[in-house]
Amino acid sequence: MSDAVLTQEAFLELSGISKRYAGVRALEGVDFACERGKIHAVLGENGAGKSTLIKIIAGVVQPDSGRMRLAGRDVSFATPSAANAARVVCIFQELSLMPDLSVADNISIASPPRRFGLIDARAQRRRAEELLAEIGCEDVNPLMRVRDLPLSRRQIVEIAKALGKKPQLLILDEATSALTSADVEKVYAMLARLKSEGVAILYISHRMHEVEALADRASVFRNGRHIETFDRGRRSTAEIVQLMIGRDIAAQYPAKPARTSVKPMLALDNLSWEGRLDRISLRVGAGEIVGLGGLDGQGQKSLLLALFGVLRGISGRVTVEDREVRPGSPAAAKSAGIALVPEDRKTEGLMLPMSIADNLVVASLDAISTGPLVDRAKESEAVQRAIARLQIKIGAPGDAVSTLSGGNQQKVVLAKWLMTEPRIILLNDPTRGIDVGTKQELYRLMRELADQGAAILFYSTDYDELIGCCDRVAIMYDGRIVRELEGSELTETNIIASALNIDAAAPAGTGAVHA
Amino acid sequence: MLQRRPALGPSMLDDVAIRVRQNVGIVTAVLLFCVLYVLYNLAHPKGFSSAVLVQNGDEIFALAMLAMAQTVPVLASGLDLSVGAVMTMVGCFASYLLTGTAGGTPLHLDLFGLHLFLGTFPGDISGILLGIVVCLAIGALAGFVNGCVVVYGRIQPIIATLATGAVYIGIALFLRPTPGGKIDEDLNWALTNSLGDFAATVHIFDDGAAGWFAPVAWIPVPFVLLVLIALLVWVPFRRSVLGRAVYAVGSAEGAAYMSGLPVDRAKIAAFTLAGFFAGCGGLFLAIQTSSGNADIPQAGAYTLNSIASVVIGGTSLLGGTGSAIGSIFGAMILRVISFFFRIFDIAPLLQPLFEGLILLAAVSIGALGVLRVRNTLELFR
Amino acid sequence: MTSASLSLSRDDRPILIAALFILVILVAGTVYTFARFGSAPLLSPTYLLQQLQIGAFLGIVAAGMMVVILIAQIDLSVPWTLAAAAMMATSIGGPLAIPVGLGIGLLVGLVNGIGVAYLRVPSMIFTLGVNAVMRGLMVAHTGGYAPQTAATDLMRTLAADRTLGIPNALFVWAAVSVLVAVMLQRTALGRYIYAIGNKEAAAYLAGVDTRRVTVICFVICGVAAALAGVLLAGYSTKAYQGMGDAYLLPSIAAVVIGGTNILGGRGRYLGTLIGVVLIVLLNSVLSIMDMPEAGRQVIYGLVIIFMLLVYGRGERVTS
Question: What is the arithmetic mean of pLDDT over C153-171?
Answer without folding.
Answer: 87
